[in-house]
């Protein structure tokens, strides 16, 4: 004999009977941390893309500016440096007086002599490897750092405000190359300034 108002147990192996006095099982709580982690990742990468896009825009602005070429003999400025070409030597096959440091070109060396002045208000390091030579076909050549060491004795120089140094920048180019422009940079990220050699 059953007692009134008592819940009836479910049949063995059957589904629970929620409508007969048994409470429904508690709802599973959704975990919030995966959504927070996803939001952090999206914000992080979004910020990275924005930063890269801004840097690319600045570099492209600098590249556009560097297409203007100053007349031969002009002083050009980029960042904290002013550059003036003082001479361009005829092509040679070797650079350096020291037999140990002497360097032989793959093609031939064009040596560009440059006076560099720090026009900023604090010391700035000059690196020859940031400079480029452009020929009459628009090809760009980087300088040969080993030959620069042979020619100057140093690969870099710290220049204080108002001070000036003179360097030779050797570019290893194919024989018969006609150099027309040098592009100067005060750092690897600067826009650059071009000056004609003739």
Topology:
Elements: H1 33-66, E1 69-70, E2 75-78, E3 81-88, E4 92-95, E5 103-118, E6 124-127, E7 132-135, E8 140-142, H2 145-152, E9 156-159, E10 164-173, E11 179-184, E12 193-196
Parallel strand pairs: 1-12
Antiparallel strand pairs: 2-3, 3-5, 4-5, 5-10, 6-9, 7-8, 7-11, 11-12
Number of strands: 12
Major β-sheet profile: 5 strands, mixed
Helix/strand class: alpha+beta
Overall geometry:
elongated
* Pattern of helices and strands: HEEEEEEEEHEEEE
- Indicate the CATH architecture of the largest domain: Sandwich
Q: Gap between N and C termini, in Å?
A: 117 Å
Tell me the Rg in angstroms.
35 Å
CATH classification, class level of the largest domain: Mainly Beta
CATH topology of the largest domain: Immunoglobulin-like
Please count the helical segments: 2
Mean pLDDT: 82
- Provide the domain count: 2
pLDDT below 50 for ≥5 consecutive residues: which ranges? Answer: 56-66
What is the multimeric organization of the chains shown? single chain
Q: What is the strand content?
A: 25-35%
Q: Approximately how much helix is present in the residues?
A: 10-25%
Strand arrangement, major sheet: 1-12-11-7-8
